[in-house]
Specification:
Layout lengths: L1 H24 L6 H8 L3 H7 L3 H22 L9 H14 L3 H6 L2 H9 L4 H27 L9 H22 L2 H18 L2
């Protein structure tokens, strides 16, 4: 049992360290020697857990990036007892208000991977697409609930609205990196509020 626990701890160390390096430097610019150096693991210990960087990248998406999107954007939508437009405003504005300076500067980890390797690496593309589709599906369901309650206009296209919300949010994370200016977020928050208000019945 102790050996299994130690093995799990080592795997977690590699995955968490790799995520931080990918986030700071980018996936392509991060090497296995970089990861070994940051984890202080020997070559043998490292390769006992992962055979290559691609395998680590897959785990980073499945374990860390998926958790971030689930906890930040998908799970809150399931708490839909209150007003749906207000819930959408909360999900798409509250997280931005609480980003650290580092998160503002580095942008969205999922979006960074999409921009860097989302198309060229088929395995990563499929995993990332499934993650975004899970987010989109939960949004569609939430919007449909709002329509049934009479809180959102019946003529609203739920699927188109869901992808618009995701693209707007992911897009502003990237634009903020370029401008390095919080005014970009302030303007986004204002426009997002106006957009969601336009959906309200």
């Amino acid at each position: 049992m102790k050996q299994e626990l130690k093995s799990k701890e080592t795997q977690d160390l590699i995955i968490n360290t790799s995520f931080e390096l990918f986030y700071e430097k980018g996936y392509n610019a991060t090497s296995i020697p970089d990861i070994m150096k940051e984890t202080s693991l020997s070559k043998g210990a490292f390769y006992h857990h992962f055979k290559n960087k691609h395998e680590i990248g897959t785990k980073v998406i499945e374990v860390i990036i998926r958790k971030r999107i689930k906890e930040g954007f998908i799970n809150p939508l399931t708490n839909n007892d209150g007003n749906i437009p207000e819930l959408l405003k909360y999900v798409f504005t509250n997280r931005i208000k609480n980003y650290s300076d580092r998160e503002k500067a580095l942008g969205c980890p999922a979006n960074n991977l999409v921009g860097e390797i989302g198309y060229t690496d088929q395995d990563f593309r499929v995993i990332l697409k499934d993650l975004f589709e899970e987010w989109r599906s939960e949004l569609i369901n939430t919007i449909d609930i709002g329509k049934k309650r009479g809180e959102i206009k019946q003529e609203i296209n739920s699927s188109a609205t869901a992808i618009s919300l995701i693209c707007a949010f992911e897009g502003v994370r990237g634009v903020r990196k370029v401008y390095d200016d919080d005014d970009i977020f302030d303007e986004f928050l204002e426009s997002m509020g106006l957009f969601i208000n336009s959906l309200t019945a």
